[in-house]
Structures are given as C-alpha cells and as structure tokens.
Design goal:
This protein has 269 residues and is an alpha/beta fold. The chain has one domain: Metallo-dependent phosphatases (Purple Acid Phosphatase, chain A, domain 2, 4-Layer Sandwich). The chain has 8 helices and 12 strands. The strands form 3 sheets. It has a 5-stranded mixed β-sheet, covered by helices on one side. A 4-stranded mixed β-sheet has the order 4-5-9-10, with helices on one face. Helix 2 crosses helix 5 and helix 6 packs across helix 8. It is globular, with a radius of gyration of 17 Å.
C-alpha cells in the first residue's frame, strides 16, 4: 500500500487521470490525498469532485478555490463576481451531495504515522503544529454547525490581517481560513500579505515566505497553493506540491512512504 498526496488539481481531470496512470495507482490498496484546490480553472471540476468523493478514505484539505466554490454555490457572492469554471458542477443533479461533502473537509490534517502534516497554503509562524491542529478543528466545528452559512456569507476578505488570541467569532475564523488556504508571505508575528503571488517579496526583510519561520517542526509540512515557487522542497521539512497544472505546467504527487515525487505534464487544453 502506498499513500500519495497530490498537488492542486483545480478541476484538471485529464491530468489527474494521467498522473494516476503514471504512479500505477491501485484503488484496492493505495490511498490518495489532496492538498486543496480540488476545483476551478480546469475543464472538469465535476468529474474531479465525483472521483474524489467516491474514494475510500481520501485525505482532503480545503484550498482557497474550494472555499470560494462553496461561497459561490450557496450564492453568498454573485457568481459573476469571481472568475470560475464551475457551472457544470453547480448544475449537476448530485451537486448538493458533492458540495455538502466538500464543506465537511478539514483545512489541516496531521499524519503522525507518516511524520507529516498536510495543508493547502501554510501554517502561520505563531502556531505550533499542535496549536495549528487545535485551530483547524475550530474551523471544522464551524463548518459542521448551523453557523456555517453565516460564516460563508462573511468569509471573503483580507481582514483581520494579524492574529490575536483575542480574535472572536467570524474575524477569528476568517484569519484561520486565510492563513491555512491563502497565505504565502507574512511577518514573524503572522501578519499576512495576501496580495503578493510571486516567489519573492518586494520587502524581503519584513515579509518572508511562511515556511522560513518554521524552524522547530518535527513533522514535514506538505502544501500546495504556491505554483510560482517552482521548488518542490523550498526548505527542510517542507514540500511544495502545486506545480501549476492549471497553468499548463505539471501535476505532482508525493508518495509519503519514501517522499518520492512524481509529475506528469498538464493534459489540459
């Protein structure tokens, strides 16, 4: 049995099938995981989500595109306000089932048996891995409560940009979501820059990649989100799995048992 974590699929169904063929995926014994952004930009988010939904015990964390997909599906934002390729999914007969399942997924999963954690964007510097797991459990509790639609209605936004243990209610949950699903650069106190998408920052003495602050982690962090990094291992104990499939580059999987990395060219047109 092997466990494969796959980078940002973003609805690139043909590329996902090509990658599974490349790694000789065997559904009877192998387990698949996805580091977020299952949906959007690619040509077939519906087929992608149907496939992942029917898997036995998939490891799934939510990415920013998945969060926005939930916001749009439930029309907490005009569907014309956010560029997407989700109409086929939203109009499918099983859309309610698929999106309800998606909404129940975590934003971080700890895998002690593999000496790893998986997350979409990253882990803010002020949180230990243990604290981060407790905090992601807060988000999961919100999304599994009657308050989930209220939060999705106010989820979008960049504020608060800084963390405080005194944050409450939707401000607290919004920072949690932004850190786990959108973060690239931050300062040492966890203040987020959510506007810079490239691999280097114009103020490198102040804003650094979040992983540059992760010096004491005992588990490897597997993440996606940052295709422009173009580095599968940007620092020790960190593995970047988004290799830009939706942009015409490659789709990547990491086998947890030996940390081997496999990639195939994007099959999207």
């Amino acid at each position: 049995m092997s466990t494969y974590l796959i980078g940002d699929v973003q609805g690139c169904w043909l590329s996902l099938q090509a990658l599974l063929n490349h790694i000789n995926y065997d559904s009877s014994k192998d387990q698949l995981g996805f580091v977020g952004d299952l949906l959007n930009r690619g040509n077939d988010s519906l087929a992608t989500l149907r496939f992942i939904h029917q898997l036995k015990d998939p490891l799934v964390v939510l990415g920013n595109h998945d969060i926005y997909s939930l916001i749009l599906f439930h029309e907490h934002m005009s569907r014309d306000a956010y560029k997407h390729t989700l109409d086929e999914l939203f109009q499918a007969d099983d859309a309610d089932t698929l999106m309800a399942w998606l909404s129940q997924q975590a934003i971080m999963i700890t895998l002690p048996e593999h000496n790893a954690v998986m997350v979409h964007a990253g882990i803010a510097p002020q949180w230990s891995l243990e604290e981060a797991q407790t905090i992601t459990d807060e988000f999961t509790a919100v999304m599994r409560s009657a308050d989930s639609h209220t939060f999705l209605n106010v989820c979008e936004g960049n504020e608060p940009a800084s963390w405080s243990n005194n944050l409450t209610d939707h401000d607290r949950t919004r920072y949690i979501v932004n850190a786990f699903t959108r973060m690239r650069f931050c300062d040492a106190n966890g203040s987020l820059d959510l506007k810079t998408h490239i691999a280097t920052h114009q103020s490198p003495d102040i804003m650094k990649p979040w992983f540059d602050y992760r010096h004491n982690d005992k588990l490897d962090i597997m993440f996606g989100h940052w295709a422009s990094l173009n580095k599968p291992r940007p620092r020790e104990h960190c593995y970047a799995l988004d290799s830009g499939c939706a942009w015409g580059h490659t789709l990547t999987a990491l086998r947890l048992e030996d940390r081997n990395i496999f990639s195939v060219p994007s099959a999207e047109k």
